[in-house]
Write a structure and sequence with these properties.
Length: about 450
């Protein structure tokens, strides 16, 4: 007989995600609730959910497990992940759980967990322990069961967002907002009435059948609707979110998609304008532009391992004012060091208004100075072997090597990062150069040929 796994298969490095019902079902959700309440030693836990068809059933079972183990539940209903973060730290709760699969396929779901202060629970910081407890837990309810309290936290979250935003100098921009039938639509609609801009909604109604495709703007095939709407409405800016809207993606006034790498540089400089000399945490996949922008703006760039738990931990340790990942996760000190797909676009609009420049103008110099491939994924049968082959080929000529996250090699005129995903069976490649677009494309094709071969 094979050994029992230490934790369920849906427990990943940073969160919980898996197929429904084969890897995650109401029974396991109930057990996760029991185990989490015991791990947190009860208290009150915020529970939110996205609009996926399975989310309500999973959230209900999760809440039942939490209350059976003695915790109270603040049920904030359908929302975005950052609203769970906000409720957890603003109301000083013991923890929070968001039931979401974000941008994953239709038959998936998952959970993101935080403890008090909206600090992430992941991997060896408690998630593995909760997973083990979910497999082998006492199903006997607590003598004193908790209660579920329904709460509409949208108004207080909107007030929080508005409090961070000085709209005094805002230009009357026209903005396309594509919620992708995820959860961003109601938030943007609530914000629209408080901001001096024109919002043009696209796919704004939350719909768990995702009639217009899974909300994942990182996929090039999912960007067309936003780009077309920007051009059709002669908009100044296009925005698109993933399902739980903790990531926002940007399109300039021509409908061109702007790689998240350059938004990190833009938001870093914007943060340093109000926090001179501040520390900026960034991921190691693409780095040259961020280091250059932060240094020239008088800040301190700090490279850190990819992943929200690692980024938030480093930001707290350094009291960093901003953290950014090229995958469109943007972290803010004012938001308990958490990532937000709402604060990020409000800051970009603020920057466009303050400077009087179009988004294309704000990023064009960065794009020219450091052309980048964007992240390219490959599913490989032997990713370890592929990593070894690439390292053996390029390491002898490399100026510098680091393993902060995967393999990064500085080749002088160009550099690359190759890493295995923590959440999917894929290998990820990023290449950038110093002002030489043709060289970047050549080296990208060269490495991909090695991986594919």
């Amino acid at each position: 007989m094979s050994a029992r796994p230490a934790k369920p298969a849906c427990f990943k490095a940073y969160d919980i995600r898996g197929r429904v019902p084969s890897e995650l079902d109401p029974d396991l959700a109930y057990r996760i609730g029991l185990s989490t309440a015991r791990y947190l030693k009860a208290g009150t836990v915020a529970v939110g959910r996205d609009c996926r068809l399975s989310s309500l059933e999973l959230a209900t079972a999760l809440s039942r497990g939490l209350t059976d183990a003695g915790a109270d539940v603040l049920d904030i209903g359908q929302c975005g992940t950052e609203m769970v973060y906000h409720a957890t730290y603003a109301r000083e709760l013991a923890g929070g759980i968001m039931v979401t699969a974000s941008h994953n396929p239709m038959d998936h779901n998952g959970m993101k967990l935080v403890r008090d202060g909206a600090r992430p629970i992941s991997g060896d910081s408690g998630l593995d322990e909760i997973g083990a407890g979910a497999i082998d837990c006492d199903l006997t309810p607590s003598a004193k069961r908790g209660k579920v309290v329904l709460a509409d936290t949208l108004p207080e979250y909107i007030e929080f967002l508005v409090s961070l935003t000085d709209t005094t100098g805002w230009k009357p921009l026209r903005i396309v907002a594509n919620a992708g039938n995820g959860c961003a639509g109601p938030i943007v609609a609530a914000l629209a009435g408080r901001l001096p801009v024109e919002i043009i909604p696209v796919f704004a109604e939350p719909d768990g059948t995702f009639p217009n495709g899974i909300p994942n703007p990182l996929l090039p095939e999912n960007r067309g609707a936003t780009a077309e709407a920007v051009r059709a409405h002669k908009a100044d800016l296009g925005l698109a979110w993933d399902g739980d809207f903790d990531r926002c993606f940007f399109f300039d006034e021509t409908g061109a998609f702007i790689e998240g790498y350059y938004l990190v540089g833009l938001l870093a400089v914007a943060s340093l304008r109000t926090h001179p000399g501040g520390r900026i945490v960034h991921d190691p996949r693409l780095t040259w532009n961020t280091i250059d922008m932060v240094t020239r703006a008088g800040g301190v760039p700090l490279m850190n391992k990819t992943g929200h738990a690692f980024m938030k931990e480093r930001m707290r340790a350094e009291d960093a004012v901003y953290g950014g990942e090229m995958s469109a996760h943007h972290y803010f000190r004012e938001f308990a060091y958490c990532d937000s797909g709402m604060i990020s676009w409000l800051r970009v609009v603020e920057e466009m208004s303050t400077t009087g420049r179009k988004l294309s103008d704000l990023v064009s110099a960065m794009q020219a100075a450091y052309p980048a491939s964007g992240e390219i994924n490959r599913r490989l049968q032997d990713p370890d072997g592929a990593m070894r082959r690439v390292e053996e080929r390029y390491r002898p000529a490399a100026i510098a090597l680091d393993r902060v996250d995967g393999l990064s090699l500085d080749m002088g005129a160009w550099r690359f990062n190759l890493r295995q995903s923590n959440t999917e069976p894929v290998i990820r490649l990023n290449v950038e150069s110093r002002g030489d677009h043709a060289l970047m494309e050549q080296k990208t094709a060269e490495i991909l040929a090695m991986l594919d071969g």
